[in-house]
Structures are given as structure tokens and as C-alpha cells.
Amino acid sequence: MRAAYYEEQGPAHEVVRVGEVPTPEPGPGEVRVRVAVSGVHVGDVGKRRGYWGSTMTYPRVIPHGDGAGTVDAVGPGVDPARVGEPVWVYLAQSYRPFGTAAEYTVVPAGHAVRLPDGVGWEQAAVVGIPGITGHRAVFASGPAAGRTVLVTGPLGGVGRAALAVARRGGATVVATVRRAEQVDEVLAAGAHHVVVLGADAARQIRAIAPDGVDRVAEIDLAGNAALDVEILAVGGTIATYATGDPGASLPYWPLAFRNITVQFLSNDDFPEPANEHAARDLTAALAAGDLRYPIAARFPLERTADAQDAAERTGAAGRVVVEIDA
């Protein structure tokens, strides 16, 4: 099969190659998916570059954890009726060498989620890593119904998913943005209220949630910790999946005096029941049209290195995809 791959970590155009590699076969409990579209996430870029202390577990890695396509073979223990099923795929390259930047990928059967009618390949291909992370940020502390959830970075991949699932889960959803021109887009993505960050942000959030926010889905723990302390309810939670400064200190006593819980999230290691819960809710959100990602750039498989470079630049502008059959 044709695939993009790398055999050492480094800059995309120095290490990513495209060529023929052996087609993987599904083992027990696995399915093989003929990939239509591969989604690119900054986490894929980080693994390839060796960020966060990551190393290569396998001598050759086909990148990208997210994708969408059609089940074309099943391993022992999997219902043969799944052959021909359209699916979206998550964690394809988590502790595995066969990501979705290839004509075929093999994943555990539960990580290939049946795709409802009307959901296109592109939307399905980009929901996995950010969607499940956003879902976990909202629901790791339990049901969201009746809670107030604050989403930071609401136009990013994780933030958009958090907005959609929090609202669908019955929460009052507040979002913060840096520019006033982002407000309408965030409201359209699912927020009930949007606050532009500035000197008056804490007061505005407290006007919406007088007793404080119950949960924060946090994109920048270091940068936003001081504001989070001001607006969180006693016993509230910060669920954080990123930070601008990994070495920054936190306001320990203000957090402690308010009995704030800080949850650190990395989606390669979420419990499987949490992944399954997220997959169900995200699929429903896609089908209903409540979760939609702008697509910032599309590349053919031969330009996977360009796609990975683009994923580092696009941010809130949208997601990057690799079209396998293009």
C-alpha cells in the first residue's frame, strides 16, 4: 500500500517519506479500514518532532491518529458484517505504528465508529483526538447537566468539541475569546455566552455565573490560572489539556482555599469507557450538525509533510486533512 511514514524524528520535510509499505492485516478484535481522509492534529506533529519527551517505539511510524474510511477486513472475533461499514477512526497511532496517513490502517474494532448517514469524510476524519479530549474536559468530573462550563480556546479543535458536547449535555456554556470579532463564530459553534478577555473578564463571567463556574476546559493552564481562580466556584474543576508555559508556577493557595481540582488530560491514555462515551456523543453531535470543523487546508498523500507543517500554523483557522485518494 501507499503510505507516508518516518523512521526517525525531526522536521517534516527531512524525515517524512511517501512510498510502498506492507499492507497491515487485522488481528484478533481488530478491523482494517481503507482510509478516505486522514486528519492531522498538532499531537501528530509533536510525536514526529519528539516534543514532550516522546520517542519512537517502532522503527517505522505511519503518522496520524484520526481518519475516516470504510471497513474492508476484520480479524478473528469481529462480526464480518462490519465489512463495508463507513467509520471514523481514533487513536490509530496511539501505541501503534499504523496511523491513517496511508491507504489502509488497522485499529481495535471499538476505535472504528460507525458513521451516520450525511456526515462527510472530512468532518469524520478530524473529530478523533480533539473531539475526545474536548469531551473528557467537560465530562471527566461527571454529568454536565445543570452545570456552568467555561471553554477557553473555543475555536480550536478541542474547544469546538467541548462547546458542542457541553451544550448537548445540558450545561450553560460560557466561552472566552481574545478578539471581539470572534464572538459571533463562537456563539454559532454552541456557546450560550462569550466574554472577550480583558481587565473586566472576571466580572463579566461572574455576572453570568454568580456562584462561579463549575468547570473550565482549559487550553492554557499557565496563562489562565489567575483568571480561573477568580471565576471558579468552590469545589470547581480545571480540566487542562495544554499550557503555554510548561514550567510556570500555579497560584497554589488560592486554588487550595477554593478546593479546586486540576485534572491533567492526555488522550492517549483515557480510560476506554471514557473513549466510548465520547465516541457516542461526538457521533451524535456530528449527525445533528452541532459539531462542525472548518477545513483550513487539504493535501494529497504525497504532500503529507506539507500537511503537517500546515497543522502547526492553522490553529483556530481550521483543521488540516490529507485526502488519500486525491
Automatic annotation (TrEMBL):
Q: Does the keyword Glycosyltransferase apply?
A: no
Give the matching SUPFAM superfamilies: GroES-like (SSF50129), NAD(P)-binding Rossmann-fold domains (SSF51735)
Which keywords appear in this protein's UniProt record, sorted alphabetically?
NADP
Record carries keyword NADP: yes
Any one Pfam family match given in the protein's UniProt record, by short name:
ADH_zinc_N
| Enoyl reductase (ER) domain: residues covered | 12-322
List, alphabetically, the SMART domains matched.
PKS_ER
MF annotations from Gene Ontology: oxidoreductase activity
The record's InterPro entries line, in alphabetical order, gives: ADH-like_C, ADH-like_N, ER, GroES-like_sf, NAD(P)-bd_dom_sf, Zinc-ADH_QOR/CCCR
| Protein's name according to its UniProt entry | NADPH2:quinone reductase
Which lineage do the record's taxonomy fields give for this organism?
A: Bacteria, Bacillati, Actinomycetota, Actinomycetes, Pseudonocardiales
